Amino acid sequence: MLSPSLILAPLLLSLFISASAVPGQSPLLVHQSSDPSIENARVNAPAVFNAIHSSMRQWGSSLKHNGMSFFPATVPKGTLLYHGTHTPEPVKGMEWLAFEVEHAEMFARPRRGHVPGSRPGGGHGHGPGKGPPPHARMDSRPKSPHGGNVHGDAEDKDEDSHGYLHTYRTSRSLTKLLYIDGMSAGKTSMGTLDSTDYVIRNLSHASTEPNHVSVTKR
Q1: Residue 122 · residue 135 · CB < 8 Å
Q2: How far is CA 38 from the centre of its chain?
Q3: What's the rounded Cα separation, in Å, for the pair 18 and 132?
């Protein structure tokens, strides 16, 4: 009678020969030069994760202030939006709206240079607490390079000296929105508006004036 060790030895030998004859495994899908790069996906995975995690968050958006990512977005019906300005007139045309009331409150102040209680022509200095908020040192409505308002409004010589906080509520769901990450609405010289200028004003990095193209309203 053969011992169990003598029976197992030929069996293991045949399994070893069969396993060694199997060729090396290949990916299920052969990578083509035009396909997305698996290596690039692996390298960029942390950046993609951080972009998604930081979207609509203050810390990540401030840390990476020059936005590079675009997200399709929606705003549900009944969402409250806020706008701070120097006039009681409702928003007309293209304007900014904030999701957080604290953000809009920084702009709910008189137009720059019109401080309540200050004397006209009293100099350019501000006393303690009379200057604009630290992160809102410019008018809430952007100016054109030629000094006028980009919305075409004439400068009101008899401006009000009060600030106003507007509250708006969406009357229907907004489903065709584009969210640009970072501080893409920040009017700075650090490049925060580059993505916005490219999408809304059709500005490239080499141009300073918008390319005039027709935009179809839907």
Answers
A1: no
A2: 27
A3: 80
